[in-house]
Amino acid sequence: MIVLGLTGSIGMGKSTTAAMFADIGIPVNDADAVVHSLYQGEAVAPIEAAFPGATKGGAVDRSELSRQLAENPALFARLEAIVHPLVREREKVFLQHHSANGAPLVVLDIPLLFETKAQNRVDAVAVVSCDAQIQKERVMKRPGMTAEKFALILSRQVPDHEKRAKADYIIDTGHGLDSARQQVSAIVHRLTSQKRP
Fold this sequence. Notes:
Layout: E1 2-7, H1 14-23, E2 28-30, H2 31-38, H3 44-50, E3 55-56, E4 59-60, H4 62-71, H5 76-100, E5 105-109, E6 124-129, H6 132-140, H7 147-155, H8 160-166, E7 169-172, H9 177-194
Parallel strand pairs: 1-5, 1-6, 2-5, 6-7
Antiparallel strand pairs: 3-4
Helix pairs in contact: 2-5
């Protein structure tokens, strides 16, 4: 089974691209969805212990957690120490399940792939990218997004040009959905037909 890591900076279209892999039958493990689920389950108690007041009604209050992190960015390491091992555990279960079922290819959608050295756990990396201006326009349309928040997020991510340089494949989402779909299909065909990037 080939494991493809999918990543991309904020606003590059990674989630939309991940859905394109899923649409053609490739199993996708979405790290963001896993975190969302953990924030309503096993991450709640340790996060409340580390970030008092950051949970509400048995789930993590994302806006309160964001506020605490924005106030003190040094706390990101504390949050990652709680969340990353739980995400890895879910990832392991996903890989075991699809390996046992004979899937030829799976995708690990990992937002901070290079930042967490996850490239060492996959066979190939696809980076979702687009022009910086398009990226900014997409991100600034998000509810509650500010220029400061965008800058903070970017400061925690490996720059796009570095990601592109390290990628085995680049999926350019700046030319519309059909173009991105064609690029996804080409990558799937290449990986499943030759078994190795």
